[in-house]
Design brief:
Blueprint (H helix, E strand, L loop, with lengths): L4 H9 L32 E6 L5 H17 L2 E6 L6 H12 L5 E4 L8 H9 L4 E4 L5 H6 L6 E4 L2 H16 L3 E6 L5 H14 L4 E7 L4 H14 L3 E6 L2 H13 L7 E6 L2 H9 L4 E4 L2 H16 L7 E3 L3 E3 L1 H10 L13
Parallel strand pairs: 1-2, 1-3, 3-4, 4-5, 5-11, 6-7, 6-8, 8-9, 9-10
Antiparallel strand pairs: 10-12
Helix pairs in contact: 1-2, 2-11, 3-4, 6-7, 8-9, 10-12
Main location: other
Pfam family, one: Peripla_BP_4
Protein name: ABC-type sugar transport system substrate-binding protein
Length: 343
């Protein structure tokens, strides 16, 4: 079994392996069921993954990473996705249905901290390993439901927000900025906003923080309103790229391109292209493809009875215009090397 993130990324980049939701039988509900490899018929060697909506390219890349690692290691995997990144009930229903089937490990990427807890309780009662990726399951809710997570794999979101804050200070020097987060109360969004806030404290004036539910159009609308109220605004920080690109459009509509700096988090390909074009000042790139790969690798180790770290931090990197071409060329794989703790 070869656990090489670099190799799997290279396979995707050369076109040898590109697996995504559009090629599966998920249909209009946004889910996919891609059983890859030659894993046997028993649940002991089958993996189920439930992720956020494939309406967002971040989670498309995550699904690609899951499928690529399963293909490389000849492991059977079934991936189900929510209809959208706000479809908490639909995602919960998908996990509950899979929990009644025969799988040896589950990879979960919850929309909120609590929406998958009921399904996870059913899985935990069977003593099946659970690998939590990207967005954390709420620790208190999990404990109350008797859910013992095998590991958490994801970005240090506070650190990612801090990198964006440092970049904003460097870009604008001083003045007013606004923050646009995801779903109100979301742990991931909150950590990114907190990291940014701490990085700019005493240096920049945050005039408003608002939620746009991770959605581009809502962020565009919110940014337009904020700029109307604050004509001297210097910049925006968005908790994900989709919202960042909505803000970029709002800035263009206002005729303020080059005057209002926009920085976001994710490192999706369209955001990298916007950075290269000079529309988006920077993105803090996460690597959902690598997170997906690590999720499968962690499940394989857990199913084999091997020890898995309680927490695995996935890599991030600030991408500005000078690094954009390299990041695009290596997408969806990380463009900077990182240590894989599961090797």
């Amino acid at each position: 079994m070869q656990h090489s993130l670099r190799l799997a990324g290279a396979l995707v980049l050369t076109g040898t392996l590109v697996l995504s939701g559009c090629g599966s039988d998920g249909g209009s509900d946004g889910g996919s069921d891609g059983s890859n490899g030659s894993g046997g018929g028993g649940g002991g060697d089958k993996i189920a993954a439930v992720i956020k909506g494939l309406d967002n390219p971040f989670f498309q890349a995550m699904e690609d990473g899951i499928n690529a690692q399963a293909e490389e290691d000849s492991v059977s995997v079934t991936v189900q996705a929510a209809q959208s990144i706000t479809d908490t009930t639909g995602q919960s229903d998908k996990l509950s249905a899979l929990a009644q089937q025969d799988y040896g490990c589950f990879v979960v990427n919850p929309i909120s901290g609590t929406n998958l807890v009921n399904g996870l309780a059913r899985i935990g009662a069977k003593d099946i390993p659970i690998v939590n990726i990207d967005s954390p399951v709420d620790a208190k809710a999990a404990k109350a439901a008797g859910v013992d997570l095998t590991t958490y794999i994801g970005t240090d979101n506070t650190e990612a927000g801090g990198k964006a804050g440092d970049a904003m200070v460097e870009a604008v020097g001083s003045g007013k900025v606004a923050l646009i987060g995801g779903i109100s109360g979301d742990v991931t969004s909150g950590a990114r906003l907190d990291g940014f806030t701490k990085a700019v404290e005493g240096k920049l004036d945050i005039v408003q923080t608002t939620a746009a539910d991770w959605e581009r159009q809502k962020a565009l609308t919110a940014a337009t309103t904020i700029m109307d109220k604050n004509p001297d605004l210097k910049g925006f920080f968005a908790a994900n790229d989709d919202m960042g690109l909505g803000i970029v459009q709002a800035v263009k509509n206002a005729g303020k391109t080059g005057k209002v700096t926009v920085i976001s988090v994710d490192g999706n390909k369209d955001a990298l292209q916007a950075v290269q074009a000079g529309d988006l000042y920077a993105t803090v790139a996460q690597y959902p493809y690598a997170v997906g790969q690590l999720g499968v690798q962690a499940c394989e180790k857990a199913m084999a009875g091997d020890e898995v770290p309680d927490n695995i931090v996935s890599p991030t990197a600030l991408v500005t215009k000078d690094k954009a071409a390299e990041a695009i060329a290596k997408f969806p794989a990380p463009f900077e090397a990182f240590e894989n703790p599961l090797d």
